[in-house]
């Protein structure tokens, strides 16, 4: 500064000021950098300190002796204050100078001056009076509320000013720091006489090991920063900005000169406001900006040198950092760490924030950071970028990004530097105001949503919550500012950087993640894995999701993912360095690129490395919890989420909602939801919430497939197969069913089915997308090929195998067959509203109530039953209930013959009652319509149209014939007119229905009232052994309804054809058949005729019960013959052949025929003779 330039008064001390000094100072202030300009006063200040120290020490060495000479004639404290001083100030200065001149001596002391005596007595301990340095520090470090006399102020100021203008002090500095100068090569090379040497020592004071030199250099700086006017060139560079910003007067006397540190603080605040682009901000000149930053930089090691901060925080320093030694920025860091303590004064907090904002603009303002990272910055060329403006190169954010990039690339960055980086990354996350872009671009969001949350990172997390869209739309510029800040702070590398998250999640970390080393990046992953579990607390959940929202949008912010996948990303996704961006592949798109390659097959190629795939799967599993953690999904589906899913607020519901409305989504959203669903089908563990819900089932039944690193759809298939195990809870069952319902929308959503049948679908079912339609298409093709006995099946073996799995799974829940479900939805609500979906229970309910179904639903159910009867493996209820019985009795049977096998073993003692009941249900169903009995249909293919065409003509397609065709065939069986194969099948049906009346649909339809009134006990019996039929036969005379009577008469007629059709009679006569009719084969009434002959033969003694039952049957048949005469010759012949008086009737008929023959013969001869006589008479 050129203050000495205006000193025209004669010095009171006869120590001449070198004539060249004003010229040199003038030249320096106008033409050299601030760093150089500040060097001269620093040299002189060393001399001042040395001089004052000498008076205390007594001058024991040569260097001190030299200062004692100068001390006899100290710089003129009464010299004028330079340009800008007012007249009153000049007069006061002259008076002070005169006072000093009268007391000049070798041991001159400030304490001897009368103008400062009162202040000295009041403020400074007496033992310090003999030390000018101690007096100077005591008086200039006064508290703000304590004033000292104006004359003393100006005396001190002029004293310091004149000390800083004497070039002779450089020689003393050389003497004191001789060893240090030789150690620091760059300082040894400086030219003497220009003040550069001491400036170099100041810049390198962190490397000074000599205690005396270090103390002098440090103390020297504490004086010069007490007043900005003592800094060479500062006033010239910043005069205009000081006046414009009203930062204080630049003239002595207009303001307390010892508070001039506030002027620098005011300029610093102006610089901060300019960076934040606050409204109406004044733009500080570039030269002044550099001067301000340089002052902040040079005061970075000792907080005493920042006068404003020192005075503002002196009490706080004693409160929080009493044991922290000054120097190397330690006090600054200590105060920064306590900035948001409740006991911290607001003025100190404000001063600390300003200091931090300057650090954010220039990292060199932090002494500890600049020192710790100096070599690393040079090593990784973080401050050598020709394409970047110098101002941006020094930004804290640039330094952090550059060094973080080195760390993420696996380069070695010193531990000390990483520690400093950690502190400042935490600082950025704690206080949003340290990021000018946040202040500038998020101003409205802060005012509207986040005011009053300044401390401990709460405002930043509030902005993150706004950015997630939890409140309302956020400006893109604010969103970008938040994204940039998260990248700079990089909290993904160490959760402790985010103080709000750290405090919120401390309890969760201590319980759920205690096995992970503190500060490990896997802590965040661990927290994500415990999201929505009982160990998670609500506050931690919110903070975690707020942070993860931004980490999810830049793959580099997950350090583990970046470490494992940076090679794959460069190879497959054309990414650049950690802190470099690309418009072609933005950071948010890289992860999408990675997961597209994560599930490629070997044939497809371009796959991820194993380690990278594991990490991609980990991220997918964690982010599937919330759609907002999937940037691409949220971006493309924003409108659809609002339209369809606005009420879905619970965890995981939004994605389920989108999947439910897949057909309604816009194209872009449908594509991304489809892709994600396709990935889930291959790796269902992506559904983290579902996996947690299904943990018991997985541990019990699916642990082997769950432990496999490659899922390939096996785990979901296992869960579906075990969906009804006792370990299955409601949440898991609902989740598995939902996934099944989603799968039917597109065959690609079933990974195993897609893999096995993709080629078959393209060849046989092109342009079909819905899975249910594809399954129908393929299964129809398989069925047709089978029925037509094709030489080669068109559907591949692997596809047929998986097709069977899909068909069985679809049969489990009616909702998995949309066409059937839609057709029967109203019937379900009306008839089965209390029946739960799953286990085919709803379908079973509809089957049991099929007579009450609507026409459309009835047809669909009939079609379903027809398919199930052809292929019983698709009958889910039958296969489930009879699972163990199938293993016991039908292991060797083909799938299509399972029901037939079960029917044959139905009455076995080992048969499970529930399975037996289910078999009976299926038999009842089969007997309602011949089309539901594929074996009968095939055996009677020729007989049905031949004998029962009239019945077929009455029936409608896709509706049951209610057993009419089978009843028709039964009658023909009794007439013994069926083909052998058909007769065998009807015999089986007759035998089965004779034991259980429910197997005869016509009997059940027409005799319901009679059964309930005449045979209630027999009908209520659990085991049906033909007692109901016997009851109806016995009460035949009491039956009033003709239709029922006819059915009972038909039973009687059928029983004549085969004794097996009459189980009660067969049981009663079993021994007699064995003894008397063993040689006679069953069928065609042969055994029945044998018993009748035995009954009439007095030589044969039948069992009493058999004899009684036979006599009853004869009476019944006689009554039947009376009430039901033969309808035709065939019926008449059948009645004769089955009549007990068959021989008598046949004898009578034979005699009649013989007589008729004889009469014919006689009449024939007689008419012949008469005719001949007539001819003879005519001849004559």
UniProtKB/TrEMBL annotation:
Pfam families: Cys_rich_FGFR (PF00839). It comes from the Eukaryota. GO terms for molecular function: fibroblast growth factor binding. The keyword Transmembrane helix applies. PROSITE patterns: GLG1_C_RICH (PS51289). Its main location: Golgi. Cys-rich GLG repeats lie at residues 283-343, 412-471, 473-535, 607-666, 727-786, 794-851, 852-910, 977-1040. Residues 68-104 are annotated as: Disordered. Keywords: Glycoprotein, Membrane, Repeat, Sialic acid, Signal, Transmembrane, Transmembrane helix. This is Golgi apparatus protein 1. It comes from Poecilia formosa.
């Amino acid at each position: 500064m050129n203050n000495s330039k205006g000193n025209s008064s004669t010095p009171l001390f006869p120590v001449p000021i070198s004539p060249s000094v004003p010229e040199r100072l003038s030249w320096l202030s106008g033409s050299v950098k601030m760093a150089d300009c500040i060097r001269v006063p620093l040299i002189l200040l060393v001399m001042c300190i040395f001089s004052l120290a000498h008076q205390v020490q007594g001058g024991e060495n040569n260097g001190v002796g030299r200062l004692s000479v100068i001390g006899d004639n100290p710089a003129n404290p009464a010299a004028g204050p330079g340009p800008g001083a007012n007249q009153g100030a000049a007069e006061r200065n002259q008076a002070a100078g005169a006072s000093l001149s009268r007391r000049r001596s070798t041991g001159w002391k400030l304490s001897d001056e009368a103008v400062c005596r009162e202040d000295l007595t009041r403020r400074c301990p007496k033992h310090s009076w003999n030390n000018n340095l101690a007096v100077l520090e005591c008086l200039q470090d006064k508290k703000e509320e304590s004033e000292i006399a104006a004359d003393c102020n100006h005396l001190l100021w002029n004293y310091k000013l004149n000390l800083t203008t004497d070039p002779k002090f450089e020689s003393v500095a050389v003497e004191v720091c001789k060893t240090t100068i030789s150690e620091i090569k760059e300082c040894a090379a400086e030219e003497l006489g220009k003040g550069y040497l001491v400036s170099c020592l100041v810049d390198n004071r962190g490397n000074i090991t000599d205690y005396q030199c270090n103390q002098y250099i440090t103390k020297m700086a504490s004086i010069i920063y007490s007043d900005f006017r003592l800094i060479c060139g500062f006033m010239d560079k910043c005069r205009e900005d000081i006046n414009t910003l009203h930062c204080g007067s630049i003239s002595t006397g207009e303001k307390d000169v010892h508070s001039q540190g506030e002027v620098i603080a005011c300029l610093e605040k102006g610089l901060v406001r300019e960076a934040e682009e606050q409204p109406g901000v004044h733009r500080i000149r570039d030269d002044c900006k550099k001067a301000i930053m340089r002052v902040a930089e040079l005061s970075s090691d000792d907080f005493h040198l920042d006068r404003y901060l020192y005075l503002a925080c002196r009490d706080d320093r004693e409160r929080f950092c009493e044991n922290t030694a000054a120097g190397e920025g330690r006090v600054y860091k200590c105060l920064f760490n306590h900035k948001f303590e409740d006991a911290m004064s607001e003025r100190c907090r404000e001063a600390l924030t300003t200091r931090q904002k300057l650090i954010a603009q220039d990292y060199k303002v932090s002494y500890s950071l600049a020192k710790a990272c100096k070599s690393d910055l040079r090593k990784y060329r973080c401050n050598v970028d020709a394409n970047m403006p110098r101002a941006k190169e020094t930004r804290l954010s640039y330094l952090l990004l550059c060094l973080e990039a080195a760390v993420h690339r696996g380069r070695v960055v010193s531990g000390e530097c990483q520690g400093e980086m950690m502190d400042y990354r935490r600082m950025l996350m704690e206080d949003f105001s340290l990021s000018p872009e946040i202040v500038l671009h998020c101003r409205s969001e802060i005012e509207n949503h986040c005011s009053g949350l300044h401390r401990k990172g709460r405002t930043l997390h509030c902005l993150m919550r706004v950015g997630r869209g939890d409140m309302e739309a956020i400006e893109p510029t604010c969103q970008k500012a938040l994204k940039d800040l998260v990248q700079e702070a990089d909290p993904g590398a160490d959760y402790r950087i985010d103080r709000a998250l750290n405090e919120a999640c401390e309890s969760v970390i201590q319980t759920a993640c205690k096995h992970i080393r503190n500060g490990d990046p896997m802590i965040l992953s661990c927290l994500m894995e415990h999201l929505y579990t009982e160990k998670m607390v609500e506050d931690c959940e919110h903070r975690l999701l707020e942070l993860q929202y931004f980490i999810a949008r830049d793959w580099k912010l997950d350090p583990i993912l970046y470490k494992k996948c940076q090679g794959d990303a460069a190879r497959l996704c054309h990414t650049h360095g950690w802190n470099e961006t690309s418009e072609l592949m933005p950071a948010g798109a890289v992860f999408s690129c990675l997961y597209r390659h994560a599930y490629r097959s070997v044939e497809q190629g371009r796959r991820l490395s194993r380690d990278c795939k594991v990490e991609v799967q980990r991220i997918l599993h964690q982010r599937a919890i919330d759609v907002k953690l999937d940037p691409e999904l949220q971006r493309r589906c924003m409108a659809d989420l609002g339209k369809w899913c606005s009420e879905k607020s619970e965890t995981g519901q939004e994605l389920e909602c989108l999947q439910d409305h897949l057909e309604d989504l816009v194209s872009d959203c449908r594509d991304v939801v489809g892709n994600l669903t396709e990935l889930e089908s291959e790796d269902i563990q992506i559904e983290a919430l579902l996996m947690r819900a299904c943990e018991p089932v997985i541990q019990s039944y699916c642990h082997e497939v769950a432990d496999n690193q490659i899922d390939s759809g096996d785990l979901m298939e296992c869960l579906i197969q075990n969906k009804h195990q006792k370990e299955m809870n409601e949440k898991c069952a609902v989740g598995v069913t939902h996934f099944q319902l989603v799968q039917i929308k597109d065959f690609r959503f079933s990974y195993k089915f897609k893999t096995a049948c993709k080629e078959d679908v393209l060849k046989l079912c092109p342009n079909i997308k819905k899975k249910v339609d594809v399954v129908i298409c393929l299964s129809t093709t398989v069925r047709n090929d089978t029925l037509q006995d094709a030489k080669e099946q068109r559907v591949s073996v692997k596809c047929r195998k998986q097709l069977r799995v899909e068909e069985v799974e679809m049969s489990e829940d009616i909702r998995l067959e949309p066409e059937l479900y839609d057709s029967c939805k109203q019937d379900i609500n009306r008839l089965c509203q209390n029946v739960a979906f799953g286990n085919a229970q709803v379908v079973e309910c509809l089957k049991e109530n099929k007579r009450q179904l609507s026409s459309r639903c009835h047809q669909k159910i009939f079609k379903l039953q027809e398919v199930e009867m052809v292929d019983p493996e698709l009958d889910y209820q039958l296969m489930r209930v009879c699972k163990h019985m199938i293993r016991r009795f039908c292991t060797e049977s083909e799938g299509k013959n399972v029901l037939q096998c079960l029917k044959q073993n139905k009455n076995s003692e080992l048969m499970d009652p529930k399975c037996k009941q289910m078999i009976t249900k299926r038999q009842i169903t089969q007997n309602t319509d011949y089309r539901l009995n594929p074996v009968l249909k095939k055996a009677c293919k020729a007989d049905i149209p031949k004998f029962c065409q009239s019945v077929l003509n009455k029936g409608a397609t896709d509706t049951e014939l209610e057993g009419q065709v089978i009843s028709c065939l039964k009658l023909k069986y009794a007439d013994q007119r069926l083909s052998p194969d058909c007769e065998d099948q009807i015999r089986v049906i007759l035998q089965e229905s004779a034991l259980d009346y429910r197997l005869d649909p016509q009997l059940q339809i027409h005799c319901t009232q009679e059964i309930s009134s005449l045979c209630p006990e027999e009908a209520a019996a659990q085991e049906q052994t033909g007692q109901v039929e016997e009851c109806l036969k016995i009460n035949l005379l009491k039956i009033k309804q003709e239709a029922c009577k006819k059915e009972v008469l038909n039973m009687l007629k059928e029983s004549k054809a085969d004794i097996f059709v009459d189980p009660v009679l067969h049981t009663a006569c079993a021994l007699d058949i064995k003894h008397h009719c063993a040689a006679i084969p069953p069928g065609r009434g042969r055994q029945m005729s044998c018993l009748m002959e035995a009954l009439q033969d007095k030589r044969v003694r039948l069992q009493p019960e058999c004899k009684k039952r036979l006599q009853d049957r004869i009476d019944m048949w006689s009554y039947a013959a009376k009430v039901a005469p033969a309808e035709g010759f065939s019926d008449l012949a059948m009645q004769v052949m089955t009549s007990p008086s068959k021989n008598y009737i046949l004898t009578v008929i034979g005699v009649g025929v013989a007589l008729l023959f004889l009469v014919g013969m006689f009449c024939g001869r007689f008419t012949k003779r008469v005719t001949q006589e007539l001819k003879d008479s005519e001849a004559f």
